[in-house]
C-alpha cells in the first residue's frame, strides 16, 4: 500500500524544497510529486532541484509562469487548472512505496479555482504531513497555526523540519529549537546552505540531519 507524505511550510522561503529533498534522500523507494509549480517560466523548478540534489524520480504536473498562488497564477494566465480532487486521483496512480508531495507556499494556499488547498489534498489521500519551519522569531506562532489546522482536520502530523539552521544561532533560534518540540516532534534540522551542496555531498549528509 502506498504511503503519502505531504510536505508543507509555515510560509514561503522556509526551505521546503531542500527539506523535501532531504526526506527523499532518506526514504527508500520514493517518488516526489510537485502538483503545482508557479514561477516556472525560466525553466527552474522545485522538482528539478530535488532531482539535482538526490537523483530521486520527480514528477511536476501543473506549471504556471508567475510566482504567485496557483489559483492566482492560473487566473492571470487565463488557464484552467486541475481541482484538488483531480490531483488526489492522479496521486493514487503514482506507483511507489512512498509518494512525497511538495506543496506550493503554505498549507492553506489555494491550489485550484474552487478554493481547494494542500490541507484538502492531504485529507483526501490520507497523508501524513511534515511541516517545514523557520528557525527565528515568529516561527512558534506560524508553526502552531499550521499544526493546529492539520489536527483540527484530523490529518496526521508526522513532525517538523527546521529548513535552515544558521551557522551562528542567536538566543531566539536556540530557544525555538527546544520550544518547537512542544508543538510536534522535531524530525530534522537542516544546516544553512544545504541546498548548495552537490548530489554526492547532499545524499551523504542528509541522514545526519534527522533526529
Automatic annotation (TrEMBL):
Residues given in the record as Mg(2+) binding sites: 17, 46, 102
UniProt KW Oxidoreductase keyword: no
Gene Ontology, cellular component aspect: cytosol
Coiled coil: none
Class of enzymatic activity (EC top level): ligase
Catalytic activity field: (7R,8S)-7,8-diammoniononanoate + CO2 + ATP = (4R,5S)-dethiobiotin + ADP + phosphate + 3 H(+)
GO molecular function, one term: magnesium ion binding
EC number, UniProt record: 6.3.3.3
Catalytic residues as annotated in Swiss-Prot or TrEMBL: 34
Location in or out of the cell: Cytoplasm
Residue sites binding ATP per the record: 13-18, 46, 102-105, 163-164, 191-193
Keywords from the named record: ATP-binding, Biotin biosynthesis, Cytoplasm, Ligase, Magnesium, Metal-binding, Nucleotide-binding
Subunit details: Homodimer.
Protein name from the UniProt record: ATP-dependent dethiobiotin synthetase BioD
Organism of origin: Nocardioides anomalus
